[in-house]
């Protein structure tokens, strides 16, 4: 059983023949049907982040006496971010240097003594026990010397670490310490976004997530501004859905960005699944949707069937209704697979007040659909993305 509840069904049916014939021509606007490219896209929002965020942790502990970098500052690898009170570490370095000098003298003395005892032992002028004592003293002094060298290296490194330096080129995104704070080893002091590149992470429902593949192109836009602000590519896809949300994660690496794009910007990503070239494309507003409800008697199930129509002007005087088949939908643009041909005069305003065969009067200048009626002021050559 079929019931009809047409939505936007272009005009009422014809009444009495005499009344219909005397009806005035309806004023309409037309646009020439043209061809262009149209894309199927998936849209989602995500925040821009650096691909790598480095946490800077002090290697020594003491009071911070100076802050040299703050939130938002650009830094190069090796730049000083903060200074830690270094007097104890300078004293430790001097002590290590003195210890090294002392152990070096003892090592040189015992080395010489050991060599002399070896020579005396070879001429039977020294006993075995005297040689063993000399060897033991030599090995002990050598171990102390090597230990002093290691202690000096550590003391020198500790002193150098009283200057907290950036390990990468980047931008300071977080500062967790202030002048006068106690810097502690193991506790973060700064976070730096490594400017090797930016990315955004999208979390998609299963149906969209399953259609995404690595390498697909992505356009990124600000929700409150026109135009493409950045371009990217799908670089990674999570192999599983999140257990808590049921969403799949997709990582988009940005390949071309404008100066407006910054770390933390919330942007709309449009992942292009496929693009059809040279398709007949018309404004969505020019279509008339007809909804039919079909009830299956045996199963008592309801099925919604959607049909679409459009009107063309014949000789600029008569409206002719066409049944059309819709393909890709891209924002306020739709692809027509059948029912319209290029250069036909598509009625784009006034079509809801007419019926098939009505007299019309064309007003205004001829336009091409999609050149003036398009999504968010974008030219038809831009990929604008469908509502999904």
Helix run count? 4
**Which geometry do the CA atoms define?**
rod-shaped
What class would the helix/strand composition place it in?
Answer: alpha+beta
The number of distinct structural domains comes to 3
Overall mean confidence score, pLDDT: 84
Radius of gyration: 39 Å
Which runs of at least 5 residues are low in confidence (pLDDT < 50)? Answer: 1-21, 370-387
Please report the distance between the alpha carbons of the first and last residues.
31 Å
Protein name: Efflux RND transporter periplasmic adaptor subunit
GO molecular function: efflux transmembrane transporter activity
Biased composition (Basic and acidic residues): 357-377
Organism: Natronogracilivirga saccharolytica
Comma- or semicolon-separated keywords:
RND_pump_MFP; alpha+beta; Helix Hairpins; conserved putative lor/sdh protein from methanococcus maripaludis s2 fold; disordered N terminus; 4 helices; Efflux RND transporter periplasmic adaptor subunit; Elongation Factor Tu (Ef-tu), domain 3; disordered C terminus; 388 residues; efflux transmembrane transporter activity; MdtA-like_BSH; MdtA-like_HH
Mind explaining what this structure looks like?
This protein is an alpha+beta fold and 388 residues long. The chain folds into 3 domains: 2-40 and 278-377, Beta Barrel (conserved putative lor/sdh protein from methanococcus maripaludis s2 fold), CATH 2.40.420; 42-51 and 196-275, Efflux pump adaptor protein, beta barrel domain (Elongation Factor Tu (Ef-tu), domain 3, Beta Barrel); 88-149, Helix Hairpins (Orthogonal Bundle), CATH 1.10.287. Helices cover 20% and strands 43% of the residues. The chain contains 4 helices and 20 strands. The protein has a 6-stranded antiparallel barrel. A 4-stranded antiparallel beta sheet has the order 7-6-4-9, with no helix packed on it. Strand 17 and strand 18 (333-338) form a beta hairpin. Helix 2 runs antiparallel to helix 3 (128-160). The longest helix is centred in the N-terminal third of the chain and has 36 residues, at 87-122. The radius of gyration is 39 Å and the shape is rod-shaped.
